[in-house]
Amino acid sequence: MQKITDSPIDFAEHIIEDVKNSKEEGVLKCVQCGMCTSTCPAAQHSDYNPRDIIERVLDGDISILEDDSIWNCFYCYTCHSVCPVGNSVCEVNQILKQFAIENEMGYDKLYEYMGFADSYFTAAIGAIPEIFFKDIKRDVPGWWEFRLHLDEIRDELDLDPPLMPSKEVIDEVSKILTITGFKDKIEKIRATQG
Amino acid sequence: MKDDLKVGVFLCECGGNISDTIDLEKVKESLDVEFIGQFVNLCSLNGRKLIRDAIFDHGLDRIVIAACSPISHEKTFQDYIKPLNPYLMDMANIREQCSWVHSDKDRATHKAITLINASIEKIKQSDAVDPIYCQTPKEVAVIGGGIAGMNAALSLAKQGTKVTLIEQSPSIGGQMAKIGKVFSPVKIAEECGMCLLNPILNELVWNENIEVLTNTKVIEAERRGGTYNLILEKSPRYVDVEKCIGCGKCAEVCEIEVPDDWNDNLSMRKAIYRPFGQSYPEAYVIDMDNCSKCGDCFRQCNMKAIRLKSKSERIPLQVGSIIVATGHQLFDMDKRPEYGYNRYDDVITQSELGRITGVNGPTKGKLLKANGEVPKRVVMIQCVGSRDEKPDGHRYCSKICCTVALKNANIIKHKYPDTDVLICYTDIRTPGMFEKYYKHTQENEVRFLRGRPGEVVKKGDNFIVRTEDTIKGEFVEIEADMVVLSTAMEPSQGTKEIAEILNVGTTEDGFIKESHPKIKPVATDVQGIFVCGTAHDPKDITDSIMQGIAAASKVSEYNYGGVEIEPFIAEIDREKCILCGECVKRCNYKSMNIQDDEVYINPMSCNGCGKCLIGCNQRAITINGNIDEKITSTIKGVLSKKREGQRMILVFLDNIGYTAADNIGVNRLSYPDSIHIIKVISVNRVRPRHIQYALENGADGLFIGEFPGDLMYGEVERKIQNVKDRIAELGENPERITFSKVYIPYYSGLARKFIEFDKKIAELDEAK
After folding, report:
1. How many angstroms separate the Cα of B671 from the Cα of each of B24, B121, B649, B661, B762?
2. Is residue B1's pLDDT more than 60?
3. Nearest-CB residue to B393 (from A31, A32, A84)
4. What share of chain B has pLDDT > 90, as a percent?
5. How many CB atoms lie within 10 A of CB B667?
6. What tens digit of pLDDT does each residue of A80-106 get?
7. Using the beta-carbon criterion (under 8 Å), do B393 and A52 form an inter-chain contact?
8. Does the ipTM exceed 0.90?
9. Inter-axis angle of helices A114-123 and A182-192, to 10 degrees?
10. Is the separation of the CB atoms in B133 and B563 below 8 Å?
């Protein structure tokens, strides 16, 4: 039961104020037409439903932060571009995920991305984490062979070896990531996964 | 000389509304005039006698009425001071702007004295001027020959008015002629649209007061006084309407075939053709863009009606008023490629479905797909281009698409009960009695799915409509073999063109704007021009007819009564004018033009803002009625009553701002008694020298308010900034001047602004 003192709209207001929300009052203008869901690739292959996300946000249903389905949005921005009232569910999702993390939820989801974090420290670049290799190998024919023989292909094309950051650069990036608290966060996430 | 004028002041007690707060005895003592009268209720007929007797007995030249707001009673008292000229009277507003906003008796009384003194000083500067009466020609042009324009024309013609009905296509009838069936909310049945339209069309054709011009467009319009001079261009029909008997032999021999736009390009027609069976005039027409000039039709015509060498013709037309009924067009489906309209034959619009199901359409009323089969499932998609904030979409609801979809769904169900019809909607909008028709449609086994589809794709022989069933919260793919798109209504090309030619305002969506959306639904921003039908906004046939008749009625009022105009408008000294055209260029209200080697000022649109004065190097322009001097004298009148240590702020407001200020009093809010409001015709009339004069003679602050909807708003804002800069150069504090937006309903905000400004000025005074 909704009590007279409840203020469900606060949750939506909180999201609207977030710097990541570029569509101003779009969230409040949602009429639940469902066009976002009708074009969402994630919705077609999982139980993620962008319209439902906004409905729950407008209901003030904070339990959505614990919902696994918000992690199925991969920011393709289709919902953002088709929404007839100028809302962006994928931006709302980014904000929701951020809230979840701030509330120490969804660390298991983040754990899969740790490989990205590691490559910042060891090479000062973003690289595809090895954890994804198996899937890409299955989904993208020829990709694995290409990756294995990249040096030979570059040689053949008369290209220099890839330019990698120097040791000073790597040290500097590591330092920045440490001072800004990124490293602490990584360790915290790692710790929760034992 | 003007100092010798005999001024009479009349104080109204307003049944205690004024006298309870203001000490009228004190007021009387402090004024130096020829005569002072007082009455409990000055606006009553007894008050009228008092005023009139005093004028005769004391030989009064000028009158000040200290009572309520001129907004409520200026006309009354202009009448009560007869035989004096109506403009030799001024009202001091000691009720709305004094007794109702101030509670301190001494301060309110002193302010009343100040306000009355200002009126006395002002009225001494007034000259007798005559109101301008404009009687306009009674002839009317109705632009657009659809159902709205036809009804407007017919209504006027039956009242004895001469009407010219101007239609750019070869036949009158408009969109209604092609929609096939129509339906009514109460009668649960679809009726033949053409059968309803035809009697109106016939009646119109036979009415002697109406001249119908088809193939004709308005290409120029110019206004002088209450008269519009239009130039029409009549394109050739290449067939003599008088001689053609509509036998159709010409079309039989014509070898050229082109898509028939009247059938939404679903069938073919010849280069010589009749737009549709009941078109008027009942004559053929040649589409010269596609004609090969082979001469077959010419040789075939027994009536010798073909005129291949006709030229277009320019026709001048003079009218007193204009009704714009230029209609709508449908959303361009190129803008929504995701629905596949241009890729697949069986993705069609509701308009095309109307043609297909129409007995005079391409399939003679049979619902068939492009391959000739009856569809098994028709899916309709609502809100295509409407309620859509994406680029190229329309934010508004097109209002009729829900009911049109219901109608077409019912027509399909009546003829083909086995065909499944599914309507994908966001909200079904069937206001008022149309809800009955919605229920009827549900009973008729039409299905409804709540969800807005994002895409239509081809799968094998059929389509897949991808959507979410938002009630179940499930993503669904619906198989269909025909998809019907309910497209938005948007202003027609003709509507956009005529808005520009006639210089009438449009909404941000491009429809013709009414002068007030609530209480003036058919008047436009321009006096004498009215709007009806879908040129105004999306609406159905009934509403179009009602609005057409309403527009006709407004034209009649206008023709009957003429228009009275306040005389405080610009005037040109023709001796001095060198026709440089600078004033014409400057006028924001477009009320000036050069005609026959003279600058002509339209009294109906000039608002006396005086912008033209500044640009005239010849000093050939004046504003009637001594406006400049009146403002100076009013300022003088206020400031001369300044008491030691009293703070005085002058507030300049035009009619709109003044009404907002009145509303503060009407709602019994308050503001500081330092605020003294001066009503001006246009705030642009407040010149830098007025501001400087006020500051030099004791004004502590100046507040200039303007309604942002006024055409002069931007200019006044810039001007005030310049004045502030100049004041700063002269060593005065520019902070003493402020410019502010005012809105009539936002009176509480205006009261707050007065309070804040007073506080700011108090701080400046203290710092000094």
Report:
1. 22, 25, 12, 10, 14
2. no
3. A84
4. 80
5. 12
6. 999 999 999 999 999 999 999 889 888
7. no
8. no
9. 140
10. yes
